[in-house]
Design brief:
511 residues, eight-stranded mixed β-sheet, Beta Polymerase, domain 2, alpha+beta, NT_sf, PpGpp synthetase/RelA/SpoT-type nucleotidyltransferase, RelA_SpoT
């Protein structure tokens, strides 16, 4: 049985092809409109071009941004795609970009009911000009990128307008083709980012890039054993990514960025192999490389659902709660499906056993947090066991709320454990017995859940925040309301949701 994801993607591509004539017409009309409006600026040698998003680019974006989970229909995806149509105004110099942006703000000076602005010559073409420009991209560099809408024949399409100088056009093409389009895992990604950033700052100073390369190579000569292990992990992650990126391209016709999943799989393999010494560590690496060599010769069908030889069994409440969330997503969420497809192939054994072992590994990452021992001076073993299980289940419930594969990435699990350590510090300060814990249990676990959610930039329903505030006010707890409440006191009734991070800060605690 094929994954429903791909049926949904193909339906969306078919719908894109169905409305292609409308989109091409919209692109041309936008191009002509902006060319006419900006033609008075001939001294700046402007060029206006347009394009409609290709089917291959759309496929990749649906997977990368999880649009198949966010939207229910193909039409809904396309009508909400901000760059379905793209318009680019090309100028000569970087300083011209800001000049053109200011010019557009003067030209599009009439406000539409929807908050966007239009020019009197064409009310159907509107720009969102209230946002700060230029915008900062994920790579840290800036770009003049403006959202727009085009209305025609009772249908509204979204488009993206970019303003780019010749240097930034060159940089954008360079980064797009070398970095963005290259889904193969790269060793020392941070170094490459630094190198590309240096090129962006000064294309003429080649000696600066050579200096960075020189320093990078010299730094590898004095690596200690821990650094050598890290290098091996990066190397093996690259091999895993290279093998499956190629297979993925051949199977579904486009690439997906799953480098962090490869990192997580690699760390799982090495940590469950009990390779404490460098020699044992190297043996595990070589064994895994042999396995990957065998896998590289096999065909992989990424369209099929993952199956288990028997029912999966869990040893405790945390594992059951955490594991069931993944099992319910494993054939619906592409990232989870890809993660375990790779893991099951690398790990010899049946899928059910491999899944159980992985969940046990995740459970131990949290359960073996050294911070729990600080509670031993306050609680007996049975009491500590109960509180520990309460906190573990809270982490599992948080995972269900977050729902992201990022939860099992090593850096995120470290952040969660740091949050747990801070929570334990709070308990040591606020309670002196198990009876004290029972009094603040509901409040404490709620705050812990919000803390975990904040690591993933989640939000909390405002009514839940208000309920907890009222609970603290009504009871005699050692947890108090923070002065930060005054910042939100007039806004809470108007807000449906609040950032989890802000919700935690409303209480006088240090989490």
């Amino acid at each position: 049985m094929e994954l429903k994801i791909f049926d949904f993607i193909e339906e969306t591509i078919q719908y894109l092809e169905k409305i292609d004539d409308e989109l091409q017409h919209a692109a041309k009309e936008l191009e002509v409109c902006f060319r006419q409006l900006l033609e008075s600026n001939r001294d700046r040698d402007l060029k206006v071009s347009s394009r409609v998003k290709s089917s291959s680019s759309l496929r990749e974006k649906i997977i990368r941004n999880n649009y198949y989970k966010k939207y229910k229909t193909s039409e809904e995806i396309l009508l909400n795609l901000t760059d379905l149509v793209g318009v680019r105004v090309e100028c000569r110099f970087i300083e011209d970009e800001e000049h053109i942006h200011k010019m557009l703000k003067k030209l599009f000076n009439k406000r539409h009911a929807g908050g966007y602005f239009y020019n009197a010559l064409n009310e159907n073409i509107r720009l969102e000009l209230a946002s700060k420009q230029p915008q900062e991209q994920k790579n840290g560099f800036e770009i003049f990128r403006i959202d727009g809408v085009y209305e025609s024949n009772n249908r509204t399409f979204k488009f993206e307008l970019q303003i780019k100088s010749l240097v930034n056009i060159f940089w954008g093409e360079l980064e797009h083709k070398i970095i963005y389009k290259n889904n193969n895992y790269r060793i020392a990604d941070g170094f490459l980012k630094e190198l590309m950033g240096s090129i962006k700052k000064n294309l003429a100073m080649i000696d600066n890039q050579l200096l960075i390369i020189y320093n990078q190579f010299n730094s590898t000569k004095s690596l200690d054993p821990r650094m050598r292990k890290a290098q091996l992990e990066v190397l093996l992650s690259k091999i895993i990514n290279d093998i499956y990126a190629s297979k993925l391209q051949n199977s579904i016709g486009f690439g997906v960025d799953f480098k962090k999943s490869c990192d997580a799989i690699m760390k799982y393999i090495l940590r469950t192999s009990n390779a404490e010494h460098l020699e044992d560590y190297n043996k595990t690496i070589l064994k895994t490389m042999d396995r990957l060599n065998d896998i590289s010769k096999n065909d992989v069908n990424f369209n099929s659902e993952l199956e288990f030889e028997r029912d999966v069994r869990f040893e405790d409440d945390f594992s059951n709660q955490f594991g069931m969330v993944i099992l319910n997503s494993i054939n619906n969420d592409f990232q989870w499906n890809l993660f375990f497809r790779i893991l099951f192939e690398i790990e010899l054994g049946n899928n059910a056993e491999d899944f159980e072992t992985f969940i046990k590994f995740i459970r131990n990452r949290f359960y073996e947090n050294d911070s729990f021992c600080r509670l031993e001076s306050i609680l007996n073993k049975e009491e500590l066991h109960r509180i520990k299980n309460d906190m573990m289940l809270t982490i599992a419930y948080s995972f269900e709320t977050v729902g992201s594969i990022e939860f099992v990435y090593d850096n995120k699990m470290e952040e969660i454990n740091e949050g747990v350590a801070s929570f334990i510090d709070l308990l040591c300060e606020k309670i002196s017995s198990y009876e004290d814990w029972e009094k603040i249990r509901e409040i404490g676990l709620t705050l812990l859940k919000w803390k975990v959610m904040s690591i993933f930039n989640c939000t909390v329903e405002t009514y839940k925040v208000k309920e907890l505030i009222q609970m603290v006010k009504d009871g005699h707890y050692k947890i108090e309301i923070s002065k930060r409440i005054f910042k939100y006191i007039d806004k809470l009734d108007e807000m449906d949701k609040l950032k989890a991070e802000d919700a935690v800060r409303l209480f006088k605690i240090d989490l």
